[in-house]
Amino acid sequence: MDGSASKGKRKRGRKSKAAADHRSPSPDAPAAAAADNPAPAAAGRRGRKPRRVEVEAPAAADASTPRRGDAKHLANGGDAAMAELGPAGWEEVVRVVPSMDAVVKVFCVHTEPNFSLPWQRKRQYSSSSSGFIIGGRRVLTNAHSVEHFTQVKLKKRGSDTKYLATVLAIGTECDIALLTVSDDEFWEGVTPVQFGSLPALQDAVTVVGYPIGGDTISVTSGVVSRIEILSYVHGSTELLGLQIDAAINSGNSGGPAFNDRGICVGIAFQSLKHEDVENIGYVIPTPVIKHFIQDYEKSGAYTGFPIIGIEWQKMENPDLRKAMGMKPDQKGVRVRRVEPTAPESGCLQPSDIILSFDGVDIANDGTVPFRHGERIGFSYLVSQKYTGDKALIKVLRDSKVHEFKIKLATHKRLIAAHVKGRPPSYYIVAGFVFAAVSVPYLRSEYGKDYEYDAPVKLLVKHLHSMVESPDEQLVVVSQVLVADINIGYEEIVNTQVLAVNGHPVKNLKDLVTTVENCKDEFLKFDLEYDQIVVLETKTAKAATQDILTTHCIPSAMSDDLKT
């Protein structure tokens, strides 16, 4: 993606229930490398490392409360805080207060999978964040606030009761979750939050939530300082976002951002943390929120944000444009590669020039007109569509203009960015633990800096490889559980499996089927770097159960591979 690289880090705003033990947040899991001055990223272009991000790590639940930061907080509309703001602040807060009663505190118990030991889960932990009530007896919060949830409870402002909530939908890419509460008492006396339109630059914005630094509701104020396509930390994707200068701290996640009329213009979800910056927060804008809600209402489930399955190149160089047969008045971007599984593979070809999307001309730098005096990456137009929608694209090929109507679909990655609540898959034979690689797996194996510490071959596949079939996976020998039968193979770690007895491995299920049905005398695994593993078939299968017993592993394969 285009944009200047930096050492800055964004972090998500979920507050660990006991994060109060720390004066400053501790890192947990990264997502992508951030920019000091993030520029609109080009849609469909891969190959750059995502911005690295820090999130809050869970801490002990009986921690003491840390001191408050420099940001101005209004706890329960207290007189002291009001006096500190002055007359100008009073007017803004009075307008927002009627909507503050719809802001709730979200309590979640998480139980994360253990991707390095996939037959077990990690120790459960608790966190708190923010949310707000909308129409239809529903509550919005961030997806990362309820990720891997075991139990979710909500508490209204001024109430001492926690209500058990049900998760209706989780939008991983857009970092939004939809909840509801069955208890009628919860909905009494609350006016749902109303959504407004996309704000303009320098519009006042007020973020309301329950961040670290206290237990009561908090208000911070600022202005909209930038509107662009930005990297969503939790979703590992790029969508429209707002940059504001109001403080967004741990625990603010899922809280609403109001304009000066008390109308919601977004959801707080992440912030930029770097020694050279202050008060840079990010808000999910209403177009993304409404897309998520309408997607759920139309489909009964979250289906995601579609993309055009291509990698593309800017056409800013005049010699390049001339060589591609473009006229002086033609602008567009060049198709570098087309994903084999994408619907566009039936009509788009490498070296096609995409001139327009749904009648909107695309500039040579991949941007389209946005609002007066503003431009934005053309991925914004694509993200406004829904999965399964059709779009008209105009293409220049061999100096001739063609028009194609394409069906839009979501992105299928060789190394999945998320497992979306599913437990990780695994298979064990003769002590060899086979697993499918995903971003959570890489993070578990190599830590928050996996983008630097993981093997180069895995990172290249993560950034550049395209799937050849919808069910393709990258299967590796995760580790070898030491036993007599696997002597000499103990040091094989995270090495890709290419074939079993000459049969190419397409995914983990394919490997399981081949091994379980093998009638040959030997099992031969072809690995990358020209390594091979050879085991006697009957001995290997017989030794597996003893190894499972030794390591207290309940089954040789995950449940999803048994069917």
Automatic annotation (TrEMBL):
GO molecular function: serine-type endopeptidase activity
Skewed-composition ranges (Basic residues): 7-17
Sequence segments annotated as region (Disordered): 1-74
Residues covered by the Protease Do-like PDZ domain: 417-560
Ranges of Low complexity composition bias in the record: 29-44
The organism's place on the tree of life at top rank: Eukaryota
SUPFAM superfamilies found in the cross-reference section: PDZ domain-like, Trypsin-like serine proteases
Annotated PDZ domain residues: 308-408
InterPro entries (UniProt xref): DEGP_PDZ, DEGP_PDZ_sf, PDZ, PDZ_sf, Peptidase_S1_PA, Peptidase_S1_PA_chymotrypsin, Peptidase_S1C
Keyword terms, alphabetized: Hydrolase, Protease, Serine protease
Single GO biological process annotation from the record: proteolysis
Record bears the keyword Hydrolase: yes
Family: Belongs to the peptidase S1C family.
Protein name in the entry: Protease Do-like PDZ domain-containing protein
